[in-house]
Amino acid sequence: MIHKRIRPFNTKDTYPEQKLDNDLSHAVVTRGGTTVWFRGACPQDLDTAQNLGSHDPAEQTHKVMQNIKQIIEEAGGTMEHLVKLVVYLTDVRHREPVYRTMGEYIKGVHPVCTGLTVVALARPDWLVEIDATAVIPD
Fold first, then answer.
1. Phi, psi of 102 (to 5 degrees)
2. pTM of the entire structure?
């Protein structure tokens, strides 16, 4: 593993009632490298800023995670270099589909993650926004 992951765990053990499968850690230690700081990734096309035409939280999360993956790759890295996520939801009831979908993209990665429920995001159609940080080793 590129970065040192402190106390990795899976959400199926910590939140068994929610049927989630996210590989996370309590902390990630990095050394050197290039840090990639993201703006909040949103369910929109990166080139056109067009919203995804769906109000499904899982579909929106797929687009958000695809955008994160694309930006990491454009910076010269891979999802393995992801170290932190902050998930913003407009409705706590979307937590399970959002985290379940997010888990498909972070399987085996074990980033740290914080989740928040907020009143609204920048566009009324957005249900999820994810802020990310990656460190690409030298």
1. -55, -40
2. 0.90
